[in-house]
Amino acid sequence: MRLSSIVLSASLALLAFGAGAEPPTPSAAAAETPAAAAQAIATRFQQTLGARLQAAMADGGPVNAVRVCRDEAPAIAARLSRESGWQVRRIGTRVRNPLTGVADAWEQTQLADFDRRLAAHAAPDALTTYAELDEPAGRYQRYMKAIVVAPLCLTCHGEVDTQPPALRAALQADYPYDAAVGYRLGELRGAFSLKRRAP
Q1: Cα distance between residue 87 and residue 195, in whole Å
Q2: Which end of the chain has less Cβ packing within 10 Å, N or C?
Q3: pLDDT for 154-181, tens place per residue?
């Protein structure tokens, strides 16, 4: 599939996904159940990041998208964390940056469950989980929403030999220990993961 086809398919998918009502802000979601509040935050993260990636691809191609994931995605997560009181981050089944995105034990278990459910043909939007857990530092509320590989993801996370040279060079420069490649359309890529101390 040509890169322009991937970008067009991804743009149409993102436009369809982003249509409709704006997701609740974290402050509005706080009055809901913890699971619903976390889901609203994860959806907001997904839509905000998706829109930024779409704009970056349209403006300067996949190298710009690498910059969005490197610089803007952590900033979006940090802003949502400050606004909501949840620790908001993305984790991967394979990680691009070993300093971020590595799943803890509970997250690894949930990713394995998402993978099983996806293999059993569960709808990607249904791949969420919420739990309250006793951890060494206290009781925590935890939420995860799966990230499933869409056409746009394949540009940077697909097979290495399909990546344009400029993109490969940018990835190697920013992520010398990159393991987040070789994914296929519809495969589990990771999850949005939220955590906060239970009241």
Answers
A1: 5
A2: C
A3: 999 999 999 999 999 999 999 999 999 9
Please report the DSSP string for 127-138 in residue order. Answer: -EEEEEEEETTE
Which residues, other chains included, contact 149 with Cβ-Cβ below 8 Å and sequence gap of 6+?
A: 157, 183, 184, 185, 186, 187, 188, 189
Alpha carbon distance 90, 73 (integer Å):
9
Residues with Cβ within 8 Å of 114's Cβ and at least 6 positions away in sequence, in order, are 127, 129, 144, 146, 188, 191
Burial of 92 (0-12, 13-18, 19+ CB in 10 A): buried
Distance CA 54, CA 72 (A): 13
What is the distance between the alpha carbons of residues 63 and 49, in angstroms, rounded to a whole number?
Answer: 16
Q: Which two tokens stand for residue 86?
A: 């949840």
Single-letter residue type at 161: D
Q: What is the 3-state secondary structure (H, E, C) of 140-185?
A: EEEEEEEEECCHHHHHHHCCHHHCCHHHHHHHHHHCCCCCCCCCCC
pLDDT tens string 81-90: 999 999 999 9
Query: CA 94, CA 9: separation in Å to the nearest integer?
Result: 24
